[in-house]
Write a structure and sequence with these properties.
Pfam families: bPH_1 (PF08000). InterPro entries: PHb, PHb_sf. This is Helicase. GO terms for molecular function: helicase activity. This protein is about 15% helix and about 40% strand. The chain is of the alpha+beta class. It has a single domain, classed as Roll (PH-domain like). The strands form two sheets. It has a five-stranded antiparallel beta sheet, with helices on both faces. The longest helix is centred in the C-terminal third of the chain and has 13 residues. The protein is globular, with a radius of gyration of 14 Å.
Length: about 130
């Protein structure tokens, strides 16, 4: 899957109020955002119900793909960090029905373990 491949840079944490305002039209009734990350124009959102991957395409970013992944569909994930001096991290998610994982990269300012903990709790709550 080529999701986020053309974008340079890594995801960093995003303000929850900003994310909620931007995504108010696609959130379900009573659904709320728990964690949000931004990668240039693209976003990674963890709500109380699902994982949302947002891919803004083209030069203007007017075409947008919203990929909604129910937590129960995540079969496995891995986190790989690069070490003590370069704290960038990569998260890979395996989704049922897909052969290849979704790969997401995070910058050193992002606490990827917060996301890992959230995913662990959501997946265990299947």
């Amino acid at each position: 899957m080529g999701f986020f491949n053309a974008i340079l840079g890594n995801a960093g944490e995003m303000d929850l109020e900003e994310a909620t305002e931007e995504l108010s039209t696609i959130l379900g009734q009573g659904e709320h955002i728990e964690l949000a990350y931004k990668l240039v124009r693209d976003m990674i959102i963890l709500t109380d119900r699902r994982l949302i991957l947002i891919d803004k395409q083209g030069m203007t970013g007017r075409k947008v793909e919203y990929r909604s992944v129910p937590y129960k569909s995540i079969t496995m994930y891995t986190i790989e960090t690069t070490g003590h001096f370069d704290l960038d991290a990569e998260l890979k998610l395996w989704i049922s029905g897909q052969h290849d994982p979704i790969s997401l990269e995070f910058n050193g300012k992002t606490n990827v373990y917060t996301m890992q903990g959230q995913l662990a709790a959501k997946i265990a709550g299947k």
